[in-house]
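As a warm-up, study this chain.
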Amino acid sequence: MKAVVLREVGGDLALEEQTEPDSGHVVDVRAAGVNFADLLIRRGLYPQMPELPYVLGSEVAGELDGRRVVAFTRGGGGYAERAVVDPDWTFELPQDAPFATGAAFLTTYLTAYIPLVNAARRETVLVHAGAGGVGSAAIQIARHLGATVHATASSDEKRDVVGRLGAEPCAYEQIDDLRVDLVLDPVGGDVFTRSLPLLNPLGTIVAIGFAGGFWEDPSVQWLVGRNATVSGFYLGRLLRLQPSFVRTCVAELLELWRAGVLEPFVGATFPLADANSAHALIESRRHVGKVVLEP
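Now compare it with the structure written out below.
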């Protein structure tokens, strides 16, 4: 079979012939999600770096024993024609849903859904990077939960996408006058710092990622004075330590998808041979929605 292999930190992704998996639950991959964690591994910045050479890819959609499924892989390997998946994290793809949307589902929607449904207050929500995979998922979920949603985006094209998803679009330069109960932030850096004063009393900002740079730690004095809460979200730890809770969330999200409330947003697809181009698109910040590889 063919798979995309990373052989050194910072190196190119190479499509190579690999040995077929001969044990475990093996999915014929029809689509593989590209996540920011994959880019961090390639840069050597992921906190739990795998041993190289390594086949990237933590989520796939495909066929398993005649079933159409979405799944988390077991230890990477999703950028391939066939991948070993974890049976505990394998779910039926909704009827008639394209495989590409399945590959855009698990990571993005869980990352958006869990902080939103567990927030103490969410009447008004600000979603940063609203045109991206997690951002577009968060807008859909927050609107379903009845929130008024503002969302940032870095270009007119992306702000048009945000508006079509049902949020009030704004540029990052325009956020200073907003007042919100909850901020979902996959950007980090200066955007995170500038978002802290936007919180209403008893509001929360959820740090999801650091695509725009590492966070500047807020002082405890500032948080006390503003009645604000900073929360972190890392899906990987929840998968390990609270699997039953996460599986319940997946079931709830799948039900919303089947009911037509949610629709995973695929912004671009690439063949496996163009995995470098897929990563370059994300690095350039020009992508919208989820980027997906299709063997």
